[in-house]
Amino acid sequence: MKEQIRIYLDDPGQLEKMYRANKASFQRAFRTLYPELKGNLLADGWHERLNYEPDELSWGTGRELALVIVASLVAGLIAKLPTFLAINQEFFYPRNIGFIIFPVLTAYFAWKNNVSTRTMAVIAGLTLTGLLFINFLPDVKKSDTLLLSCIHLLLFLWSILGVAFVGETRNNEEKRLSYLRYNGDLIVMTTLILIAGGIMTAITLGLFKLIGFKIETFYFENVVVFGLPAAPIVGTYLTQTNPQLVGKVSPVLAKLFSPLVLVMLVIYLVAILYSGKDPYNDREFLLVFNALLIGVMAIIFFSVAETSKTTKSLPEIWILFLLSTVTVIVNGIALSAILFRISAWGITPNRAAVLGSNVLILLNLLLVTAQLFRVLSRKDTLPGVGKAIADYLPIYSVWAIIVTFLFPLLFGFK
User: Fold this and answer.
1) Same domain, 38 and 119
2) Global pTM?
3) Are 333 and 279 spatial neighbours (Cβ–Cβ below 8 Å)?
4) Is residue 115 a contact partner of residue 168, using CB atoms and an 8 Å limit?
5) 57 domain-assigned
């Protein structure tokens, strides 16, 4: 988008169209580019406009608001399908929980980015393939491949959402990083909405209980079931129409939690030596260890995505570098534990999935760590770190496809 801003810098009408098409991405790109454009009257005007913070929220156009309301209702109706069609909930929700939210958000961004009919057909085809595949898998009790397929299907649908978010822009790297930032902003906004909804639920149930009405069952089956899927949809709409809402919160959280997580991780690794626990012989501990790894990796990637759009001080880059280095060590321990368990007890679907995931994460972390080191050595710039993440995202998508669609067949639905 930065190149497009440069090209249309003398065309106010085109800049306005770009801004209205995607306010959040335009704002981020312009702020990164502005130091080069300072002194240009049009650029200075846009700088003042984008840094003006209105007192009231922007609710967008009536058409957009109506679309969000319809999308929320559709998501709620999908969530209610087990009730409408008498489907077993234990069968429906593990397989289809991703289809409650992701297709709706995918359709929203596809519409917002005016993707071509061909791209829309590909998105719809991939989504339908996932829907049919997961629901026609044999209903085998205690099936590891079914569980793995359900989990990685969420990553597959997340990847499809990313395709709709990126659209058909030429600068895919910048848009992929914007997609990561959007996910971080969405987590913050959705959490706030859910907290507010939880408070309202407690007050509502308490008030009705005081006058002798027990509405818990009705409320959860007819209000909460619509409210939960609506939260990320409304959160998406608010972050896209009001980038300033969490535009300052997310970088602060990234800056605050990166050093805290680094300290926690170092202390945790030292504590392992004295705890008597190890991931080599304790399966549950290995699972927790891998969950910790994924969580820390997500924090690193989100921090780097935020870092790439602003100028960072040397201490902040050092913190990210040290956090990446320590996480590589954690990944190495987890990977060696997986290899030990495979050599001792053989290959299983779970071990194969964890092994593949750990290898991919390790390679990505090594790339990010190397790029951060180059930045510290003044051999590269911060955008190079973001590029190391953006270029790698499709590889995770390919792995999600392999686990979702091939593992059940390769391991005989076990």
Assistant:
1) no
2) 0.83
3) yes
4) yes
5) no
Same domain, 261 and 331: yes
Last residue of a domain, one of 208, 229, 245: 245
Residues 403 and 291 occupy one common structural domain: yes
Q: Which contacts (CB < 8 Å, 24+ apart) does range 115-118 have?
A: 115/164, 115/167, 115/168, 116/168
Whole-number average pLDDT of the chain: 85
Can you tell me the distance from the alpha carbon of 111 to that of 64, in angstroms, rounded to the nearest whole number?
10
What type of residue is 141? K
- Report the greatest alpha carbon distance in the chain: 70
Residue 264 belongs to some domain of the structure: yes
| Rama region for 60: left / alpha / beta (φ>0; ψ in -120 to 50; rest) | left
Using one digit for the tens of pLDDT, what is the confidence trace for 268-306?
Answer: 888 888 877 777 877 777 788 788 888 888 888 877 776
Same domain, yes or no: 205 and 93: yes
Domain count, the chain: 3
Among 173, 171, 154, which Cα is nearest to 392's? 173
Residue 56 lies in a domain: no
Integer CA distances (angstroms), 261 to 14, 95, 304, 323, 328, in order: 43, 33, 14, 8, 14
Alpha-carbon torsion, ordered 143, 397, 399, 128, to 10 deg: 40
Whether 68 and 133 map to the same domain: the answer is yes
Looking at 55-59, 84-88, 324-328, 370-374, which range is the least confident one?
55-59
Question: 100: buried, middle or exposed (CB in 10 Å: 19+, 13-18, 0-12)?
Answer: buried
pLDDT digits (tens, 9 = 90+) for 390-405: 889 999 999 999 999 9
Same domain (yes/no): 97, 236: yes
Could you read off the pLDDT of 74-121 as tens digits, one per residue? 999 999 999 999 889 989 999 999 999 999 999 999 988 888 899 999
Indicate whether 14 belongs to any domain: yes
Cα Rg for the chain, rounded, in angstroms? 23
Are residues 67 and 197 part of one domain? yes
First to last CA, the chain: 47
Q: Measured between alpha carbons, how far is residue 3 from residues 44, 50, 114, 280, 379 in Å?
A: 17, 18, 19, 50, 24
Q: Give CA 305 to chain center in angstroms.
A: 12
> 224 and 95, same structural domain?
yes
Range of the domain at 29: 2-51
